[in-house]
Amino acid sequence: MRVGRSAETFNPITNVIHTIMMKISKVFSLFVFLLCATSLFGQYQLPDPGFEDWSGAQFANSIQPKDWRYSNVSQLGVDKNFAHRATGRSGYCLLIQNQFVGVGSIGATSPGYVALGQPWAYVSSLTSISDATAGTYGGITWTHRPDSISLWIKRVYDSSVDQAAGDHTADENFNIVYYSWTGTAQGGSYKAKNGSCTDISRSKPAYCVDEESDIRIALDGNECGTATPGTQIAEAWYREKASYANWTKITIPIYYLSDNAPQKCNLILSAGNYPNFRANNGIYAGNSLYVDDVNLIYSSKIQKLYINNREWKGFDPDNTTGEQTYSLGQGVTVIPDIYAVRGAGSLTNIKGTTASFAGRRLSAQECVINKGAVDGAVTTITVTSEDGSSTSTYRIRFVSQASNNARLADIRVNGQTISGFNAYLNTYNVALPYGTTAVPQVEADPQDAGATVQITQPSSVNGTSTITVTAQDGSTVQTYTLHFSVAQLSDVTLQDILVDGASIPGFQPAKANYTISLPLGTTAAPQVVPVSAYPQGEQTITIIKNNLTEGCQIQVSAPGAAVSKTYKITYRIEASQYSYLQSLMADGQPLEGFNPEEFVYYLNLPLGTTSLPQISWTAGDRYQTVSLDQSGIQQLEGTITVTVTAASGAQSVYRIVVALEKSEINSLEMIYLGGQPLEGFNPNTLSYQVNLPIGTSAAPAITWLEGDEYQTVSLTAGGLGGTSRIFVTAQNGATRVYQISFSVATSSDATLSMIYLGGQPLEGFSPAQTDYSVALPQGTTSLPEVTFLAHDEYQTISTRPATSLNGDYKIIVKPQTGAAQTYTIHFSVATSQNTALAGILVGGQPLEGFDPETLVYVDTLPQGGTAVPSVT
After folding, report:
1. Contact call for residues 409 and 316 (beta carbons, < 8 A)
2. Alpha helix (H) ranges present in 126-228?
């Protein structure tokens, strides 16, 4: 993808004055800023855009840029510095390089990049490299809306970088990505090297906040899912597979998704294939990117002008000196609403997904519209760049007459603007790609919204389309004609070259020169068969010569190509030095990302695998000896080596790092107490308090149902008085501990169920009443027997009997827990209140007429009697 690239190759001679001025600018920049009062302008630029300040914290004894963050690696005892200071166009510049990261041959080539945000990498161990993942999180506080980015670059191959395998700058994109956003993005799991998802939310939660792939949802979205996406405001993305030996200026447009101002931004400068959905192959050590003088450009131009909410296709954004005329139509007297847009466009990612950006509407502060009058004063639109660095003025004359503009603004074939379109060019020859069989579809947009467009579609791939445009005035007409044809084949590359029936080792269609080792004693040239990717006769293929002395030359031409291509094969009679495999497979399937010149691969075995897959291969040539060593595998993990020995003795060793996917489940399905499910059990709840019934003397048996078959579960019983622990270890070693604390219920009831007196229930007894008065019959000589019925068997009951018939009997009830309670019975014996006599004897004889209620009697003595009789 090449978007908005302006290539200005730097020449030391023609740019001497410019270079001197740049040096002066850098040396005296502070002075100039103060003198010109442009400190405000500085805030609209990124920090240290010229990479002059290298006072950042050192890494592995290497200086680092102060305001930028870099993809340096410091894990598992390995330190790799990816950011270097180099000589720039003036002063210093940044150099970033892809490098191999690992121990010995165990590891991977990682992309070198810097960012305003924080690059991160995660790998738990050397044996888990297949689960490794990386990215960038965060950025800087940012409220501005630039329109493009310009920077100077060099892109080269550095052979001094460790384990580099030749110049692959043409095989790998370098990337420059700018994006801004509002809000806070939240992720958790990210794509790993093996294509699965690695959850880092618990181990590295900081990495999951404002992570790049949780913001750039449309073009590089997190394939493992985003919990809360950031609200992206803007995006700029440039990538290219190319080399630039000299300083070259790149200009990249910035596209906008909304009118809002951002809160944060990030810029990523990458020497390799990052971002791009965590690309884990196609990254080559030695690919290097030099960057200098990053500049944000704030434009005062209008990209699109909308009148009455419709885009004016005929608007010329570059016409800031003359007038432009807009026809409103007859009878219109009022100028409609006008607004301007900038930052509209589209970008396509490496998967072919295209994201469209509507652009942003310029604010009233940026775009001042002074309306004139219809058929009168001109309307002026004054646009000031957001940073105040430039101003553009447009003059629009609105007229009430019908427009006579019958020109087109665009012609598209199958959705793409035709090459060389010019509104004033009416005839086009359109060559469809070789092999096209589908009839093309034509679309067109008029410059004037009032014009009508009629399209006659072509009837075949070699047909003609006409586009008739009638202006608003109804009389002005323009006709555009498109003549279609299918382009002739222009590909002059071969699909393969067979030498004695086998593909040339390392054959690549674009590569022209090969050396073939033939065994000692060879006397005749081998048979060479060119293989075309097209039907016979589409390419003209000629074997010019083929002999041991001169080698073989194959010329390929095509009717649509101006020049032919010649493949040259040189024969060398010697023991073959080729020690690369053609393919390497596990259970018949090619290893992911296999490349004959890459020697480390990662094989992730699915959960439940019980045996190693069968490793097989296709030799690079017939002279190789290949051996397999699986002794480095223990319990389905470790390293398999495949050693390839060429006939000359040269060797290549392929290493397959095998990792067994292990279950992460360390939760139980259920816990049982005495065979019954634990009440309230939840696999994610780890602590339980279980209250056993009163009188329980032993803890119930604890059993469980595993979460899966790979767990190891053990129990440490704590009994009634302690805590029982169930240790659940997942297959991957993650452990979870469930805790169960038992307690036995106790009684605090200090009431009696009944009190008995002489075997009979105490009259009026209530458990809650503790005080009773009992009157014993008159004449009682002994207390009745006091007995009682306890509330429960856990009470301790004592008594304090009364010491007399008129005393208190106390029953003290002490519960299993809590305070005691005393029942008191107040005993008393009844006494007589009767003061009446039963009878009176006078002289031993009953008193005549005695009545107990009569208190006065008169007794008459016999006549002459003087002695008073006895009274009893």
Report:
1. no
2. 217-220
Are 616 and 638 spatial neighbours (Cβ–Cβ below 8 Å)?
Answer: no
3-state secondary structure of 854: coil
The first and second tokens of residue 195, run together, are 């294509």
Structural tokens at position 285: 């050590």
d(CA 242, CA 173) in angstroms, rounded, equals 7
**Residue 56 bridge partners (DSSP):** 64
Report residue 201 as tokens.
Answer: 């939310």
CB-based contact 749:795 (threshold 8 Å): yes
Residues 95-121: tens digit of each pLDDT: 999 887 766 555 677 889 999 999 998
Model pLDDT, residue 294: 97
Other beta carbons within 10 Å of 648: 14
Predicted model pTM: 0.64
Which DSSP symbol is given to 215? Answer: T
Q: State the pLDDT at residue 32.
A: 34
Q: How many Å apart are CA 147 and CA 161, to the nearest integer?
A: 36
Q: Which of 207, 200, 210 is nearest to 230 (CA)?
A: 210
Model pLDDT, residue 148:
97
Contact present, 452 and 477 (Cβ < 8 Å)? no
Please confirm whether the linkage preceding 590 is cis (ω < 30° from 0). no
Distance separating alpha carbons of residues 131 and 50, to the nearest angstrom: 37
Closest of 193, 165, 98 to residue 596, by C-alpha = 165
Q: Which residue has the higher pLDDT, 718 or 849?
A: 718
Give CA–CA dist 165/98, Å, rounded.
12
Q: Do the Cβ atoms of 139 and 263 come closer than 8 Å?
A: no
**Average pLDDT, stretch 204-224?**
95
What is the residue-wise DSSP string for 341-364?
EES-EEEE-TTS-EEEE--EEPPT
CB-side neighbour CA atoms (13 Å) of 797: 21
| Tokens linked to 3 | 């978007």
- Predicted pLDDT of residue 111: 87
Residue 304 pLDDT exceeds 60: yes
**Cα–Cα distance between 490 and 690 in angstroms, integer?**
81
Instruction: Choose among 38, 75, 36: nearest CA to 59.
Output: 75
Length of the chain: 872
Residue 45 pLDDT exceeds 80: yes
Going by C-alpha positions, the residue among 492, 462, 484, 489 that lies closest to residue 560 is 489
Share of the chain above pLDDT 90, in %: 66
Beta carbons of 3 and 237 less than 8 angstroms apart: yes
Strands 600-605 and 651-660: parallel
Buried-exposed string 30-51: b where 16+ CB fall within 10 A, e elsewhere: eeeeeeeeeeeeeebebebbbb
Give residue 840's pLDDT.
80
Show Cβ contacts of residue 224 under 8 Å, excluding neighbours closer than 6 positions: 187, 188, 189, 190, 191, 197
- What 8-state DSSP symbol labels residue 206? G
